[in-house]
Design a protein that fits this description.
single chain; 359 residues; alpha/beta; five-stranded parallel sheet; three-stranded antiparallel sheet; 37% helix
């Protein structure tokens, strides 16, 4: 049998309208700019992945980064860890953060998807993991919409899910507390409600709000600037509930710094920034050694496989932002999601929808 190699790369952009536009303490997310990656193999398999660009202005540079970094994979054997190491080596001087860090992540995910398809296995099985369902929380709404609008939206989002996420970071602590109260009154007393400040506070104010919030929430997420390890540690000391961060960690070294600095009780790598499947597995091993539960950030379609291979797996974050351009969105049952049994990560494009949203 001939060796399977990477034969071609295609990267393209779409901008998908969001079903529930999201206003957060860190800024508004009104649409989903996505970079779609197709990594074609010599055996005919196609590894697929997508990346969230955060803003339409960043989509074109992200696609350019994917194309530039991915050009070095053409003609190479389909060995995801070796391809990952080669991309890391190319980025030693340029750095594996920003668009290049995202490109590394997306290409790594696509390589693993193609590798698993070549084996005829779903991704979690190719990683040596079982298919146990993981509990999921709905993160598709509850932006800064004001306390009056929160109960109805909470009720809608909570149906079929084990938890919801509420965005905080209003101008005043009183408004934050009113939002929390409105959300909590719409669900059962023991129903988990996560919160996210989206980096909107300075450490002293974040600590003040954490003390006032007490144990009303399941976690307080990213209250201060993402790279402020000491600031997170300060808020953690003040908080009664768990502190969560990690979504902006570029690669396992950033996760190691968060752990060493005592920045959080919980960590949530982002598959599109943590350097893909390979980076996630390394980060998950660090978290397991430290006894830290791991949840996912965005990318539920591939994250459900990654959490299956994570020793301290906790929660899957569900967002529906990519669903309009997917042939088969991820499925949930009784507030949980199991990795799809079909080969690879299960990501296939709805090409008609892709054409409608192409940019």
């Amino acid at each position: 049998m001939s060796e399977v190699k990477v034969a071609a790369l295609r990267a393209r952009g779409v901008v998908v309208p969001m079903r529930r536009p999201l206003v957060t303490g860190g800024g508004a997310v009104m649409e989903a700019p996505l970079a779609l990656i197709d990594l074609e193999m010599s055996d005919g398999a196609v590894g697929r992945a997508y990346l969230f660009a955060y803003g339409v202005f960043a989509l074109k540079p992200l696609i350019a980064a994917i194309e530039a970094l991915g050009a070095g994979l053409i003609g190479e054997p389909l060995a995801p860890r070796a391809l990952h190491a080669a991309m890391r080596a190319r980025l030693r001087f340029a750095g594996a953060t920003g668009a290049m860090g995202q490109a590394l992540s997306g290409l790594d995910m696509a390589a693993w998807d193609g590798f698993a398809k070549g084996l005829g296995l779903p991704l979690h099985a190719a990683l040596g993991a079982g298919r146990a369902p993981v509990r999921a929380y709905n993160s598709c709404g509850l932006g800064l919409i004001g306390a009056a609008a929160i109960p109805a939206e909470t009720t809608a989002l909570a149906e079929g899910f084990g938890a919801v996420k509420l965005r905080l970071g209003y101008e005043t602590l009183a408004e934050d507390l009113a939002a929390i109260r409105a959300c909590r009154e719409a669900v059962a007393p023991d129903y988990p409600v996560m919160s996210d400040y989206n980096q909107s506070l300075l450490p002293a104010e974040a600590a003040r709000r954490a003390r006032a919030i007490g144990d009303r929430l399941h976690w307080i997420e990213e209250p201060v600037r993402a790279d402020d390890v000491a600031g997170h540690a300060e808020v953690r000391r003040a908080a009664t509930t768990h502190l969560m961060t990690g979504e902006n960690a570029f690669g396992p070294p950033d996760i190691a710094r968060l752990i060493a600095g005592g920045a959080a009780d919980l960590l949530m790598p982002d598959a599109g920034k943590i350097w893909g499947v390979t980076g996630w597995l390394e980060a998950a091993a660090l978290c397991a050694a430290a006894g830290i539960p791991v949840s996912s950030h965005l990318y539920p379609e591939i994250s459900v496989h990654l959490l299956a291979a994570t020793p301290t797996a906790d929660w899957l974050e569900y967002v529906d932002w990519a669903e309009p351009i997917l042939a088969e969105p991820i499925a949930f049952e009784n507030g949980r999601a199991a990795p799809p049994a079909r080969p690879g990560a299960g990501i296939e494009w709805n090409e008609a929808a892709v054409a409608r949203h192409a940019v």
